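ugh ok fine here u go
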Amino acid sequence: MVKPHSIICAESGSQDKVTGLLSLFNVIEKFQIAKLSAPPAGQAAVVPEQRFLIAATWRKEDTDDPNQEYEFEFVLFMPPNGSEGKISEGGFLFSMPMHRITLNFRGLMPFNGGGWLRIEARLRKKGEQDWIKQDYWIIVEEIVTPSPIDAAPAQANPAAASVV
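structure:
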């Protein structure tokens, strides 16, 4: 029976073409988010896209059928209420005792507050109902950003200037 081996999330990574070894850069343990204030009339808010890499590895046993096809999914559970969104799916055959699925995510993250982001990797034999799962958890922390007026230097705000 196939078993979960590992799952991790990082800002980026590199895979050696000869050995297949994966190097990860900046493992992600926390996202910091801030609420955006409404942009001035006639202007649009610019929201940067999120980029990260998810690597999930699965291992098979010697008794597993080498011709068995498998299906996989990557699913995000967004804070604060755990709303679910599938971000990738596909299939494969094991060609070695372990199989790594790497997803380079690039897009907008619909955060609605802080809490825990759960990334779930799912695997099952093709045509079966039940998934084998493994999770990676990331803290999502809301931070307060100063308003443009509060962030301006005191000299730029005449009302904040002191009189000597």
